């Protein structure tokens, strides 16, 4: 793209795409207690169904690159938004575990593909800008999480049925993508940006398979742990407040909403924060703060528990953008190879991790499962402390 105004419109359109993806994901988060009650599911069975959502994402993510290469990012984004918009209302009316499982598989697949496509598009816009914008883009995703959580709960509380509320959100998703579609980068624009960026930075893309490179593996494992903590809040935060704090189902999304607000604020200011302080310090202090937050959510007082959700959002907000940035700068490992590998590790944690938490919750308690997440985040802090100490 040669004109600054078109680039600004592309950035704005990308922000809207991140926004509606956050809305879609948080809508499912608020629906979880309703689905559990309607189908009379225990924690283990609910965890198994959530596993299908993760399986769908992991099946779709590796092949999304093929869609992007053939169609471009914006057509791929449009395709997955269409699938998401159709799947969401079905999740609100399913009365069979088998039907719900199939729909979760499709919904998860669309979310996984959408995530790859919008991050690819965002990376291209960032390369055209030649300055960091990824944290702020993820901030818009978090804003979407807040809007989705509060809007669905509000509509249900004011008398709308869950089905009607979810249908309205699906219409909103399609309206936004229709309106912003023309401002997204075309396939030709993306190819021009890639060529210019690679030439300017002397990047030579290699086709060798390097997923098992130790630096890629390290970042992938870090992403797995952090994404698993986000998945725990998404899929189990409402259950924790509803069943352990006695919060009404209609307002059980307050924890996720609080988490989303805190994360959105930190991500929107994250580009400046990471530029001012060393990224490794942000990871060490952020993951430590999030670990404390998970333990705080387990207190018997709702106000303190909500403070814990906020601490988690503040702590993990900029960790993943930092991991992605490191992946794009690895020496002798092309970003085209490193990023899909790191992303796959991460989303395996976010989408499959909650299923593991379900089994832990059924075997022990959900509080024990949340304590385990706090331990994993402590491992992230220690790993980056040692990395900083011995590099």
Observed structural traits:
single chain; 391 residues; mainly alpha; Growth Hormone, Chain: A; 83% helix; globular
Q: What would you note in describing this structure?
A:
- The protein has 391 residues and is mainly α.
- The chain has a single domain, classed as Up-down Bundle (Growth Hormone, Chain: A), CATH 1.20.1250.20.
- The protein is 83% helix and 0% strand.
- The longest helix is centred in the first third of the chain and has 36 residues.
- The protein is globular, with a radius of gyration of 20 Å.
- The mean pLDDT is 83.
Overall number of structural domains: 1
At CATH level 2, the architecture is Up-down Bundle
The DSSP helix count reads: 15
Radius of gyration: 20 Å
- Could you describe the largest sheet, including whether it forms a barrel? none
Report the CATH topology name. Answer: Growth Hormone, Chain: A
Helix content: over 70%
Protein topology:
Blueprint: H1 4-39, H2 43-71, H3 73-91, H4 97-129, H5 134-157, H6 162-180, H7 187-200, H8 214-244, H9 254-268, H10 270-276, H11 279-296, H12 302-316, H13 319-328, H14 335-363, H15 366-390
């Amino acid at each position: 793209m040669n004109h600054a105004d078109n680039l600004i419109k592309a950035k704005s359109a990308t922000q809207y795409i991140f926004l509606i993806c956050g809305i879609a994901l948080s809508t499912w988060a608020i629906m979880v207690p309703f689905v559990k009650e309607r189908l009379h599911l225990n924690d283990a069975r609910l965890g198994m169904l959530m596993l299908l959502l993760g399986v769908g994402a992991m099946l779709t993510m590796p092949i999304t690159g093929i869609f992007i290469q053939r169609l471009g990012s914006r057509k791929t984004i449009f395709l997955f938004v269409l699938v998401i918009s159709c799947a969401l209302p079905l999740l609100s009316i399913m009365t069979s575990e088998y039907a719900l499982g199939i729909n979760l598989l499709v919904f998860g697949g669309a979310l996984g593909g959408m995530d790859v496509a919008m991050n690819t598009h965002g990376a291209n816009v960032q390369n055209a800008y030649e300055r960091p914008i990824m944290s702020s883009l993820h901030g818009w995703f978090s804003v979407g999480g807040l809007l989705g959580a509060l809007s669905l709960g509000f509509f249900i509380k004011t008398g709308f049925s869950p089905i009607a509320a979810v249908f309205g959100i699906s219409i909103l998703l399609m309206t936004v993508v229709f309106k912003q579609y023309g401002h997204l980068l075309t396939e030709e624009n993306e190819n021009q940006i890639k060529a210019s960026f690679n030439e300017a930075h002397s990047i030579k893309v290699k086709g060798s398979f390097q997923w098992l490179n130790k630096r890629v593996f390290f970042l992938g494992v870090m992403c797995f742990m952090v994404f698993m903590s986000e998945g725990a809040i998404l899929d189990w935060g409402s259950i924790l407040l509803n069943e352990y704090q006695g919060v009404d189902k209609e307002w059980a999304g307050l924890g996720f909403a609080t988490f989303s607000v805190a994360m959105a604020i930190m991500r929107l200011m994250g580009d400046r924060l990471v530029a001012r302080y060393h990224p490794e310090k942000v990871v060490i202090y952020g993951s430590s703060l999030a670990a404390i937050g998970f333990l705080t959510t387990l207190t018997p007082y709702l106000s303190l528990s909500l403070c814990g959700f906020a601490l988690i959002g503040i702590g993990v907000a900029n960790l993943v953008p930092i991991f992605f940035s490191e992946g794009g700068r690895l020496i002798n490992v092309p970003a085209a190879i490193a990023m899909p590998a790191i992303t796959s590790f991460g989303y395996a944690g976010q989408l499959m991790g909650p299923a593991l938490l379900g089994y832990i919750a059924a075997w022990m308690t959900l509080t024990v499962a949340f304590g385990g997440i706090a331990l994993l985040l402590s491992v992230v802090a220690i790993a980056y402390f040692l990395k900083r100490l011995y590099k």
